[in-house]
Amino acid sequence: MGFICLSFPWLFQSVLAVQILACSAVILLLVIRLSNLRNSVGSALFSVERLSIGELLFPAAVAWLFTLSWDQPVLYCISLLLLTLADSAGALAGSKLGKQYYQTAGASKTLEGSIAFFITAALCTALPLYTLTHLPIAQVILLALNIALFTTAVEGASGHGIDNLLIPIGAFLLLDYYTGLSGHQLLIRSTALMILLAVLLATHHKHTLNGGAILTALLYSFAAFTLGGIPCLLATILLFIRHIIVQHRLTREQVFVHSIDVILAISIPSLAWLTLGRGQSLGYTESQFGFICTLAIIIYMLNTGTQKHLHQKRPNMWPGMFLTVLVLTPSLFIKVPMQHYLPVLLIAPVLAWLYFHWREPTGQATIYHWIKLSLLAAIGSIANMLITLVILS
What we know:
membrane; mainly alpha; transmembrane helix; Dgk1-like; two-stranded antiparallel sheet
């Protein structure tokens, strides 16, 4: 199916036609799966017993990708090749050769499958760029390595077929952004991505992130650097260092494995500000400050959450205040007026106190703990930025 969709830029002149085709495909899949046809036509078309969300996301991803890239057929084909060939190569290598497993969102994946995905993704990116564009060979290689590493992390971190949407759309957006960069800018981003991955892997004995969480943390840190620059990356690193220090001080019985849930809980409210800045709904400096303030609030809540995990009856608020101030220090590089720090320093301890009393003192953190953390962080960061931008500006 993926190879057929590769011909769409030359078969269809209208975006609407592809969108209608995708909607029809989704409806047909639902009819087959949810009716008696699943025992006849459905058994011939599909080899799985249950409906995978990936089946429904594939036509939606193709339509979305075609809409974004209707005038860039090369980028369309590369993005779809990553899903068609690299994903298949990873699945095949994982099932036939896989021996080293790691946990991700709702599934187990193999290191061998991820390596096969990476190699295939690099080739799927490099060959079309080299033969169909006028980019220098050095830039093609850097682009291929970046896209391959990025999509490998996406594939490894996602589950339940969600990669059918995230891989092609994420690859296209990254390609569209990166092809406009100079070789020097691309080299900086490539180096940052490699260093971040190396740090996460080199410290895997010191932190408690599982495989999926490591790859998601890589994507999060890279997004913070790409969208917010060095100040946002420094704030992210400080949060990670705090995690390593805390895990080192806990006993073996008190330590538990962190999954993708905690990374998503941190990334959703914080990256929202950088996204607003990229979409020019907010100034660049304001979006950076919003991101850093959100992490400052989160690190305060994580500190009191750890105290609740250790069954303390009352939270000790002073260490959290120190951590909040520490995370705020990278914002000095963006020259924020000093009075703008006051709201976050007042809001953070209130939310940390609320989180301490809202969080259940269970041994293993559940997804509900992280939902509460993310919700409070979102509320606190919005309140902080409203006060900062409306009242203090």
